[in-house]
Model the fold of this input.
Amino acid sequence: MNSYKRAQASDFRGFTLIELMIAVAIIGILAAIALPAYQEYVRQARRADGQAALMSLQLAQEKFRANNTTYASGTAAIGVASTSTEGHYAIAITSSNAVGYSASADPQGVQASDTTCDPLTMSLSGGTVTYGPTGCWKR
Done:
């Protein structure tokens, strides 16, 4: 008796082209959903760079005001850089007087696509600090 069996076409199992194309289509659909969500998450994470820069500016302004009769009108006067630490935001003091000031952080470079929170703002008026736009500052 011969124990060897002759190989038949049904013994060779593998992926058909149709099965492979279905797998590629599923991966494509998942990537199309995941990539924009990931990019939005990265934009939100980069906002912390602008927020930190505005908070540093706030501390420097208060230090400057303790020694002067008014708030500083420019970032150079208080020793604050005109860009954020990671370079995702341009920092500027938009107005200042003896009782308050306004500052903004404009997204630049790869962060420029963050139009939802363009620009991040911080204002001090009458002892009250306000942050904008609404929903962009997480505390």
In short: The chain has a mean pLDDT of 87. The chain has one domain: 16-132. DSSP finds one helix and four strands in the chain. The CA atoms of residues 6 and 12 lie 12 Å apart.
